[in-house]
Task: structure prediction
Amino acid sequence: MSKTKALTMTKPRKDYKLLYYALPFMIIVLLFNYVPIFGWIYAFFDYIPGVKLKDSEFVGLEYFKLIFTDANVWRALTNTFVFAMLGILFSPLPMLFAILLNEVKNGPVRKIVQTFTTLPNFISWVIIFSLAFTLFSSDGLITTMLLKIGIGTEGQNLLGDGNAVYIFQSLLGLWKGLGWSSIIYLAAIAGIDQEQYEAARVDGAGYFRCAIHITMPAMIGTFVVLFILNIGNFLNTGYEQYLLFKNSMTADNIEVLDLYAYRIGLENMDYSYGVAISIIKSVVSVILVTFANLVAKKARGSAVV
Result:
């Protein structure tokens, strides 16, 4: 047998280098996302801190039944639904911002704009609350300026206005994540064949028509994937932002499901009920992702997940 034929018949050697690189992150995901699932067992017991689980009373599905009769759960669910719908309503804005940023041809200016719009993503909600308090409280900078030009009333406090909670908190979240969310769209734009733009400009198309007929269609696939992931996180609005901005005047409108589960489980020390709420929320999220994926498969001909 010739040497060339022997090399051809030899099976290629598997390279596990990339797997080793990903292994630490896989371990982190396992520890923080899958191991805690063991804690779901507490939802089926009347657990009391300090008492061993085996010594706790088994209550079965009692806490799950309580969820459907708890008016506070439905109120928190309504708030969660409103915030999630506003988030979905604002979801095209990062894509539009990426398109506008891509049209900035001045390199240094583009980098400065991208840096300043991405920076808020790395600022904690504690700092953002302090900034919002300085600007929008009853004696805040912006509130005072508006009063001087005749807008608003004395003692107006945007942070304590229950009617403005939904839109104000949604705009804060949009401001915080706009630049960061646009990065993946900028990557999608970078993958577009530049010859398409050159051919369109030869035919007389300007920047606006190029964006409408070339850039946006090329980004639809990315938008659909992110949209489905957002559907899966419909109930996962988080609690940090709402915990910080919550006060006696906004409590009814700002308490979302995550914050309610946090308050019940950790502040009231009713761990079993808090875990039951979290389980229901996780199950609903999985169902929503599955449903959105099926819809995408019917519409696009291919599934996303």
In short: The chain has a mean pLDDT of 83.
